[in-house]
Amino acid sequence: MFNLNPNTGVPIYRQLMEQVRRMVSSSQLKPGDALPSVRELAMTHAVNPMTISKAYSMLEAEGLLERQRGKAMTVAGNLPLQESKPDRLERLQPAIENLAMAARQLELGSDDVLKAVREHMEKQDA
Amino acid sequence: MFNLNPNTGVPIYRQLMEQVRRMVSSSQLKPGDALPSVRELAMTHAVNPMTISKAYSMLEAEGLLERQRGKAMTVAGNLPLQESKPDRLERLQPAIENLAMAARQLELGSDDVLKAVREHMEKQDA
Amino acid sequence: MFNLNPNTGVPIYRQLMEQVRRMVSSSQLKPGDALPSVRELAMTHAVNPMTISKAYSMLEAEGLLERQRGKAMTVAGNLPLQESKPDRLERLQPAIENLAMAARQLELGSDDVLKAVREHMEKQDA
Amino acid sequence: MFNLNPNTGVPIYRQLMEQVRRMVSSSQLKPGDALPSVRELAMTHAVNPMTISKAYSMLEAEGLLERQRGKAMTVAGNLPLQESKPDRLERLQPAIENLAMAARQLELGSDDVLKAVREHMEKQDA
DNA sequence: GTGGTCTAGACCACC
DNA sequence: GTGGTCTAGACCACA
Fold first, then answer.
1. From CA C112, how far away is CA C118, in angstroms rounded?
2. Which residue of B117, B123, B125 to mutate against A (max A Cβ within 10 Å)?
3. C58 touching A, CB under 8 A?
4. How far is the CA of B26 from the C1' of E4 (A)?
5. Bridge partners for B66 per DSSP
6. Are C37 and C72 in contact (CB under 8 A)?
7. Of A14, A27, A113, the CB nearest to B121
8. Is residue A37 very low, low, confident or very high in pLDDT (cuts 50, 70, 90)?
């Protein structure tokens, strides 16, 4: 469900926050849905529970998640519906810019890049 | 030439190191070429000179750059030629994986992603 | 400057957040002013630095404080001026309600309460 | 009768314990008086019954309350009479100190504070 | 020097 | 079982 990599330089809690935001944006996580428990996520990703907890707390402060005492955190109930495709494409932009910059610096043209992206995504779908 | 963003969580010096490596990998920076001076880069990107200097020093320790007293740092002279396209595509993988993960979490299909990437890269070329 | 009590049941980081908000509200801390460093505050109050850091981080997320790399945190520069007296009295309400509830349950009348408050505040001023 | 606020950070059971102690201290609850049932209090304050029960049990352990099988809990019969006014003023101190600290940080003088307290208590009496 | 991140582990509050 | 808070201590990024 989530993909946390401690070696990228991006803090783990920030990776998680961003990924939760995206899952909510696409309605793979809907208002009222429970998130994985702090301990469970910490176990499966071999990360300290506090690191997960920090991400959840900050998303709660943002209003994206809600806490219910003694229960798992849930997606906030007062959120707008699934974001439109243009909005979600907007959220994709940073990853695209990052890719394009790398390609430019590697002198790889759009043909090569598009081919590599297509292959990766097809392999993933399969 | 470079693109340094202090807000991503990735340390600035690591962003710079990675970007220099890519430019060398593609021979946009060739053995003997001078890099921008620490001061210049620090000015244009509003970054502390020590941060630039640290990146350069670590690349020097890696053998990618050479320092000549009183002159700008240059790309090391004993480097292999431009990397082959497969090698450079390999360097592109992390950015592709990052993009694919974001797309999956946003529930955007490969068609939409490829279209967005193509548009971004064309706009950039223009 | 601050008053942190670990025995009230109110989390320390929340006590600190509330007190910083009040100091800013009254302009005892003005935009641009530096706050005590995390380590300093942790030392003087015998509290773990992370506890202080957590309060500061959450106030930053709120927009009340700003972080400058390598420097102490400062009060955000884009804040409105000192709050009006009615606004500050509004902030005082929870403490007043708490006092009134206690007085009611202790069957102490407003005369006794006002006298006690006056005495406490005069002693404090002296 | 009681005032339980889940958002202050103070555990609910501690809020309740403190308030019961004050009611007993002022003889608004006298030895032999029955307390509201766990279920009733839990309902009216939208709190988990176990939370109420825990507060009652701890007050029982303190000797302030007595449990009679199948009946409501009552105030213990062997308690001293109503506390003297100085004793009750002593119990009020924490709330006063809290108020004075808030006022100081908000730069509100004793005149303003006393006025606000008086107004609040009069409104409450009315 | 500053703050940030993470860990390992404890105890608490609540369901 | 859930999340929350705190500690002690390590290492990193940045000025």
1. 10
2. B117
3. yes
4. 34
5. B74
6. yes
7. A113
8. very high
Q: How far is the CA of C30 from the C1' of F10 (A)?
A: 35
Longest dimension (CA), chain C: 54
Q: Is the minimum CB–CB distance between C84 and chain D shorter than 8 Å? A: no
How many Cβ pairs closer than 8 A exist between chain C and D?
Answer: 135
What mean pLDDT, rounded, does chain D reach?
89
Q: Could you tell me which of C16, C21, C22 has the C-alpha nearest to residue C2? A: C16
At residue C39, the pLDDT reads 93
Of the candidates C46, A89, D76, which has an alpha carbon nearest to the alpha carbon of residue B112? A89
Q: How far is the CA of A8 from the C1' of E15 (A)?
A: 38
Q: How close does chain B come to C69, measured CA to CA in Å?
A: 10
Question: What is the model's pTM?
Answer: 0.86
Q: For residue B48, give the 3-state DSSP assignment.
A: coil
A60 Cβ under 8 Å from any chain C Cβ:
no
Convert chain C into a string of H (helix), E (strand) and C (coil).
CCCCCCCCCCCHHHHHHHHHHHHHHCCCCCCCCECCCHHHHHHHCCCCHHHHHHHHHHHHHHCCEECCCCCCCEECCCCCCCCCHHHHHHHHHHHHHHHHHHHHHCCCCHHHHHHHHHHHHHHHHC
pLDDT along chain B (126 residues), means of 10: 85 90 90 88 87 90 84 83 86 94 94 95 81
Query: Is the Cβ of D6 closer than 8 Å to some Cβ of chain A?
Result: yes
pLDDT at A77: 87
In the prediction, which pLDDT does C4 show? 92
pLDDT digits (tens, 9 = 90+) for B17-35: 999 999 999 889 889 888 9
How many residues are present in chain B? Answer: 126
Nearest to D125 by CA among C113, B94, A79, C1: C113
For the record, the structure tokens of D123 come out as 């409104």
Instruction: For residues C74-102, give the mean pLDDT.
Output: 91
Check whether residue A70 has its CB closer than 7 Å to nucleic acid strand F.
yes
Type of residue found at B108:
L
How many other C-beta atoms can be found within 10 angstroms of the C-beta atom of residue A59? Answer: 22
Which residue is closest, via its CA, to the C1' of F5? C11
